[in-house]
Structure formats: structure tokens, C-alpha cells
Amino acid sequence: MLKLSKLATAAALVIAGTSAMAGDVEVLHYWTSGGEAKSVAELKKIMQAKGHVWKDFAVAGGGGDAAATVLKSRVVSGNPPAAAQIKGPAIQEWATEGVLANLDSVATAEKWDSLLPKVVADVMKYKGNYVAAPVNVHRVNWMWANAAVLKKAGVAGMPKTWDEFFAAADKIKKAGLIPVAHGGQNWQDFTTFESVVLGVGGAKFYSDALVKLDPKALTSDTMKKSLETFRKVKSYTDPAAPGRDWNLATAMVMQEKAAFQFMGDWAKGEFLAAGKVPGKDFLCAAAPGTANAFTFNVDSFAMFKLKDPAAQKAQGDLAAAIMGPEFQEVFNLNKGSIPVRLNMNMAKFDDCAKLSSKDFVDTAKTGGLVPSVAHGMAISPAAEGAIKDAVSQFWNDDKISVADGMKNIAKAAAAK
Asked: What average pLDDT does this structure show over 193-201?
């Protein structure tokens, strides 16, 4: 990864060399891996077909941290890109600075309000106006499994409850294999934790405890049971888990070393890239107890205020293209996620994506569609960081009692 000082210098050079040519659309993003880069290239094609000049401003590394640093220097210099990859509450943080463009004319013409679940549309808005365009939906509360490992251990199918899960995990352990592939980063710990909370307490409890940070919910018997279940899941991981990257944990499932992984559907991209077939080589199901809920992680592009009318027109076309069916299909086929549009034809997608899409539409109606805390969709970055740390401390230190773990999480939430 480039040093941030170098990135700032690179940004300064870009600023010096940028002139607002008619129809230019400059897009700052951090999608530089294979499938992601392919997807961005499709968006570039769509924009070029409309006669616009695409200026790619890709910043690799850091899961977007480096890109955020470069973006700040650009905006401070009074020369923002047309669009930048930003998601969750960070969109509102930029909007309060008064630097984001109003996209309502595009959103109204394209009928975004009827194409997006309200809970997703609200993330894209500031004071009722659209300021960002959503690209996709990742479901976070997935459980992945290796079909051959389950068969070898005598596990009949994907467990639907936590009790069924632990019974299956015992069989896998007996067969000499690792029941749960896990990596040792706080966001991975929290990805598992939020699925446990959702499975134990349901969508309303999840929202009260982890989104609204309600002290009563955070110190309730349901949270106690969630932490007990979470600790039990930990006992089925291997000693080498700390420090392991998520994709290496996915590889363990792929290579028949481990049975299950709790991870968002970007894990599916790893399976597919390795030529694995869903339903045959690997299995997908909602995490135990969460079949009627959906934790979402939505990638999006926030649009910045531009002075040049031709650049504004290009920016509007970009927003429309991002939400258009053509891009929604090709991007999500490459990324492993699903389209954010509610009326999409899913014929080209695999069975895991079809299930995800069905559950996305259904939970949008029932109230089971909730934002992922682990992936920056729900609470302020400061609160998120503090709670993640408290959860990881509990996960990594068996000496911390459930009661103390609960106190630590509630304390971290109160410091928001």
C-alpha cells in the first residue's frame, strides 16, 4: 500500500493537472481487484457510449482508508471529483459539509423511490434529498459450507438453528476437521457477532441493541445469551485464526480443511473464482436463526457539487447509469453481490444470489432488512470502532466473563 503522504502528493498532482473539460466525469474509487476492476470498466463503457470522458481515479489499498484521505485533500482544495465511493453514515458526514450535489432530478426521473427499499434509500439521502447512488447489496448474514466436508462428517444439511449448528460442529470436530474457519480481525469478529445477535434476538432486538445502541437491550438477557452463543462459536475455530485474512479462511472451506464460514457474499466471489459450483461444491444459507432477516452492506457513490454545466450533466448521467439495470446486472455478476434495484431480472445469477435477492425483497417489506454494523452501514465510525474493539476483546480473551463482556460493550456504546 502506498504511504498516505505519497497519496496526498499524488492528489496534489492530479489537482494541478485537472481541467474541467465538457462532459468529463472523474470517479474516485478503491475497486482495484479483478472482479471489481472489471465492473468499473463496464461503467466506463456505458459513460463513453453517452459521449462523456471518463477519468478513472483509483486509489488502491486500505479498504477505502487511503481513498478517503485523498478525497479529503481534493475537497479541501476546492476541486472534488464528480463522484467518490463512500458508504453508510459517512455519506451524511460529507453532506453536512455542504459539498454534495442534489440528485433529486435524476432520482425522480428514474423513479429511485420506488426502486429502492426505504431503509436503503434513507442512507442515500440527506435531509430528504438524494446525494448518493447505490451500486449493490451485499448480504452479510451468510453462512458458507463445504458440501464434501459436511457429507464426510455425516451432517445432513445446513443447520437452521444455533442448536443444530453446534450439533453439526461436534460431528465435524469428531471427523478431525475444523468446524469454523475464521480470521482474526475485529471486523471479522463483528461479522460473526452481529449474525449471532440477529439469530438469537431477531431483527427488532438487533436494531435496538446494535443500531439504536439502547442500553436496556445491550444489558438484557438476550444479549447475555448472544454472548454465550458467540463464545461457543469461538470454541469451534482453530488456534491459528488470529491475524488470518478473511479470504484465507474462505480458502480453508474451499480446500476441505474447514466446514463453515460466517462471511458476507464477497466470499462467494472467491468460490466462483476458483471454479467452485454453488449447491454442489459449496453451500450457502442464512446464518442460524436469521432466515427471515437480512443485514445489508451497500456500496455507493456520493456525488460532489460541480461548477461546470457539462460536468454536471455527465454526473447526472453517471448517477442514472449506476442505478440502471444494465450496470446493476453486470457489476453484481462480477462482484458476488446482488442488484440494489428491487425489480431486477435475476435469470443470469446463481442460486445463492437468487436466494439473497428474494430475501432482500421480502425483508424490505417485513422490517427484517437491517444495516450491517460490522461494515459501516449503521452507526458513527467512532461508536462502531469502540464496540468492535470491545467485542474482539471478549472473543480473544476467554478470561473475560459474559457479564463483563456485556458491560464493556454497553460502555463502548455509551461513549458514542
From this structure: 98
CB 280 within 8 A of CB 254: no
What is the Cα–Cα distance from 43 to 162, expressed in whole angstroms? Answer: 42
Q: Which of 141, 151, 401 is nearest to 294 (CA)?
A: 141
The conformation of residue 304, written as its DSSP 8-state character, comes to B
b/e per residue 204-217 (b: at least 16 CB within 10 A) = ebbbbbbbebbeeb
Q: For 153-163, write each residue's pLDDT tens digit.
A: 999 999 999 99
Nearest to 73 by CA among 156, 15, 137: 15
CA distance 357 to 339: 8
CA 308-311-315 angle, 5° bins: 135
pLDDT in tens, 233-254: 999 999 999 989 999 999 999 9
**Sign of the alpha-carbon dihedral angle for 62, 65, 67, 70:** negative
Phi, psi of 118 (to 5 degrees): -55, -40
Task: Dump strand ranges (E) for 281-327.
Answer: 282-286, 294-297, 300-303
268, 333 in Cβ contact below 8 A?
no
Q: In what order do the strands lie in the sheet with 178-180?
A: 178-180, 258-262, 142-146, 282-286
Closest CA to 189 of 413, 390, 402: 390
HEC secondary structure over 184-206: CCHHHHHHHHHHHHHHHHHHHHH
**Half-sphere CA count of 242, side-chain side, radius 13 A:** 6
Q: Do the beta carbons of residue 344 and residue 178 sit within 8 Å?
A: no
Distance CA 314, CA 317 (A): 5
